[in-house]
Each structure stands twice: as C-alpha cells, then as structure tokens.
Amino acid sequence: MAAYSLPEGFTEFDMFTYGSALLVGGLLGFLLNAISILAFVRVKELRTPSNFFVFNLAVADLLLNINGLTAAYSSYLRYWPFGQNGCALHGFQGMIAVLASISFMAALSWDRYHQYCTKQKLFWSTTVTMTIIIWVLSIFWAAVPLMGWAAYDFEPMRTCCTLDYTRGDRDYMTYMLTLTLLYLMFPAYIMMSCYDAINKHFKKIHHHRFNTKVPLRVMLMCWGPYVAMCVYACFENVTVVSPKLRMVLPIIAKTNPFFNALLYSFGNEFYRGGVWHFLTGAKIVQPDIKSKPK
C-alpha cells in the first residue's frame, strides 16, 4: 500500500477526530432527512405545495450529508482517493447543495408568512416554478467556478474540496462577494422580514406556535463563521489562520442539515404529523391556524 504523508498542521488524531465529526454529523443528518423525504413520498396527505418546499430542503440537505460522508471516508483513509477531477466534482456537488438549502430556507420563511399572516393559499404552479428556479440557479452558480470564475480545490486537511479561498485574487473576490450577497445576505433578509412579521402576528393573537428567531439564528450559526472566513480571504491572506480552525468552520457548517431536519420536518406542525404517520401509522391531525385558541 502506498504511504501518504499527513497534511501540514494535522496529526493522525486530528484526521480521525475531524473524520469522526463529519461521519457523525453526516449520518445523523442523512437519517433524519431520508425519513423526511420518504414520509413525503409515502404519505399522501403530506404532499401539499407548502410541504414540497420542506421536501426539497431535505433533498438539498441530504446531498450535503453525502458530501460530508465522502469527506469523512477520505479522512479515515488519510488522503483524497478520487483525484483532481473528483475534487472539482465534490466541490461542485457540495456547492449546489448549500445554495439550494439556503434558498429553500428563505422560500419556507416566505411560505410560513403567508400560512400564518395572510392566509393565502399556495398553489402547486407557484411552488413548482419557484423550486425549478432555485435548483437551476443553484446549479448555475455552483458551475461558475468550473468555468474559470474562482475554482474548487482541497480544504486544509486535503480530504475534501470546496471553493479555493486561499487564492484571494480578483476572480475569487468578485465571485465570493456576489455569492455572499445573493445566498446569505438576501436570504437572511427575507427570513428576518418574514419571521418578524410572523412574530408580530403571534403577539397579536397571544399564541406563539414556534420560536420565530430560531431558523435564522441556526442558519447564521452554521454558515456565518465559514462565510466570514471566506469573505476575510477576499482582503487578507487567510492562510495565517490555523489550518485546524479553517477545518472546524466547514465542519460546523455541515451540521446545518441536521438542524434543518429538526426545525423544518420534525418541528414543523404542518409536516411532523406526516413524519409520525410514516414512522408509526398513526392518523394525521391537521393543525388549526384559523382561530385564536380559547
């Protein structure tokens, strides 16, 4: 067997620890999101236009879980076994999952605003159109680095691949800042606006059905530090940051699918009944949001 040297700044224990973190987070997220997807497919009552957003979020997050599990596998091998082309494909696939996941979180906040505040019914035509747009744009923006605007390369541990933030050139800067505006700041603004309106509605009826601050906080907790590092790399030499810290941040980001499954599938009053029916066979009880509780 060929011998592979450890990446600079990492020990055998580090490789095992980071790989194990990716494995545990990936398996937990994969299991919960797979249950969410199967519930939507198997339970007829669950297949509504609004729940289709939850289903697509679970699909996007499942893709990110697969990305993380691939990284865990190569971390245990101590090297990347799929070559440079495999690295680019790994980064491309992960980027599609991330962009789609964040987009569907914003779409769900918009849908929840209408469910609770305006009581406007969402039609299949609207949901399908928005879903197609989200996936097409996610694939387009993820493919841009393959065309020469920025690039995908290895992360510090050299067992997984992402956008090469060590370049710091004009191409990377313009791409990263554009991506941050379109896929972090804009979705965060939508989520903040929608959930703020929902919170005001809950206060008005004196009944809080869920914590409206949690979804945005979870997204920013998971992706905020990693994006901040990538933006920092636009202006400063990011390699001065410890390689171990630069690996911790994407690992934290990859926990987002696990939290999303808890929030949007198992914690969603319009979806969890279908999940429970799928797991136990118990009858679905549709939540009543029309009237103020007595």
TrEMBL record:
Transmembrane segments: 20-41, 53-76, 88-110, 122-152, 172-195, 216-235, 247-266
GO molecular function list: G protein-coupled receptor activity
Keyword Methyltransferase: no
PROSITE patterns for this protein: G_PROTEIN_RECEP_F1_2 (PS50262)
Major site of localization recorded for this protein: membrane
Alphabetical list of SUPFAM superfamilies matching this protein: Family A G protein-coupled receptor-like
GO CC annotation: membrane
InterPro entries xrefs: GPCR_opsins (IPR050125), GPCR_Rhodpsn (IPR000276), GPCR_Rhodpsn_7TM (IPR017452), RPE_GPCR (IPR001793)
Subcellular location: Membrane
Function (record text): Receptor for all-trans- and 11-cis-retinal. Binds preferentially to the former and may catalyze the isomerization of the chromophore by a retinochrome-like mechanism.
PANTHER family given in the database record: OPSIN
Descriptive protein name: RPE-retinal G protein-coupled receptor
